[in-house]
Design goal:
Elements lengths: L29 H13 L9 H9 L3 H6 L2 H15 L5 H13 L4 E3 L20 E2 L5 E3 L2 H15 L5 H12 L3 H13 L1 H9 L1 H7 L8 E6 L4 E6 L8 H4 L4 H4 L1 H9 L1 H7 L9 E6 L4 E6 L11 H5 L4 H5 L8
Parallel strand pairs: 4-7, 5-6
Antiparallel strand pairs: 1-3, 2-3
Helix pairs in contact: 1-4, 1-7, 2-4, 4-6, 5-6, 8-9, 9-10, 13-14
């Protein structure tokens, strides 16, 4: 029997949601970077306390209203804190006690960021700062899950499971990654046909030739041609080639993009200002816990003889996701 759309899991938007894609940039707050770092460290090869699929399973068990109401990194905090309890690494009583200690010490409050808005009426997955306003001007109270994230961090450090230095190093490592790394890969493929062949055959090994990390999943390069344009999405969460592009943009994680990329890819491209010839087919690639994609956009005409540094200025993050093409010279 064919499964009706309403029977699909909450998180699997699978083309069921229609809304414009909010392309506004979002600079992660420190609590978001810290949640990101803690989840990655707990799932790394050294600790391997849980897997990406286990983290996803806990988040997907949330009801629809809660799942879409929670900001992205609060869902991560819910996921790893729940799994730490499930696996008897931490106890709920210890977490509650640490949260109470933080409140008593006034560590449940932060300085309210300038220009911060407390609006949560968005009908999409959002990354705005989920603080609650306090009576004192310029002070905000951490949300319950933000406070839980802070309690988890403190307990993990106290028990020697993580160190503060490891968390700082993970944040710094992710801060250092971005489109400039992916651009190096793309330009090398543009200018070195033998490297392009190796990149197509084994992207992980090829990026390591440039001193870059392949990450802990399989990395696959997708080459755009006049006949085929590649577009990358993660319909279930936010799987993304972080080793060469850094953290995913907020719009990539949004419900609107996750739903519409598979149903109306040409319409999505149009929202990003990309108009392809009618004869160009679009292939949508769905990332997952084991597989990441990097789009190699076409090299613009008129760039013959350009050096690598100049060419790299034409390669954007969005082009390597596939929502745009390379900048024109």
């Amino acid at each position: 029997m064919t499964q009706r759309p309403d029977d699909l899991p909450t998180h699997d938007v699978a083309g069921r949601f229609a809304a414009p894609i909010d392309q506004n940039a979002h600079e992660p707050a420190h609590w978001e970077k810290e949640a990101d770092a803690i989840r990655l460290l707990l799932a790394d090869k050294k600790r391997h306390i849980f897997t990406t699929d286990e983290s996803r399973r806990v988040q997907e068990a949330l009801d629809a209203e809660t799942y879409w109401k929670l900001p992205y990194y609060e869902r991560w905090i819910h996921g790893f804190s729940s799994l730490l309890k499930e696996k008897d690494v931490l106890r709920e009583a210890d977490l509650l006690a640490e949260e109470a200690r933080l409140r008593a010490a006034g560590e449940d409050k932060v300085e309210d960021p300038p220009g911060h808005h407390h609006d949560h009426h968005h009908d999409h997955d959002h990354d705005d700062h989920p603080y609650q306003e306090d009576d004192d001007a310029g002070i905000a109270v951490l949300s319950p899950l933000q406070l839980r994230g802070r309690a988890v961090r403190n307990l993990l450090i106290a028990r020697g499971i993580l160190t503060a230095e490891e968390i700082r190093a993970q944040i710094e490592a992710m801060d250092s990654r971005g489109e400039h790394l992916g651009a190096r890969v793309v330009v090398r493929a543009w200018t070195d046909p033998a490297f392009a062949v190796r990149l197509a055959a084994d992207a992980g090994a090829a990026v390591e030739e440039l001193g870059l990390s392949r990450g802990e999943t399989v990395l696959t390069a997708l080459f755009n041609t006049p006949e085929v344009h590649n577009l990358v999405v993660c319909t279930l969460c936010s799987c993304y080639p972080r080793s060469v592009l850094g953290r995913p943009p907020a719009w990539y994680k949004s419900r609107a993009y996750r739903a519409r990329a598979v149903r109306d890819p040409r319409g999505v491209l149009a929202e990003f200002g990309t108009a392809l010839p009618e004869g160009t087919s679009i292939r949508v690639h769905d990332s997952n816990a084991e597989l990441r994609y990097l789009v190699v956009p076409r090299r613009p005409a008129g760039t013959e003889g350009w050096d690598a540094a100049k060419l790299e200025q034409l390669v954007t993050r969005d082009a390597m996701i596939g929502v745009t093409e390379s900048r024109q010279p």
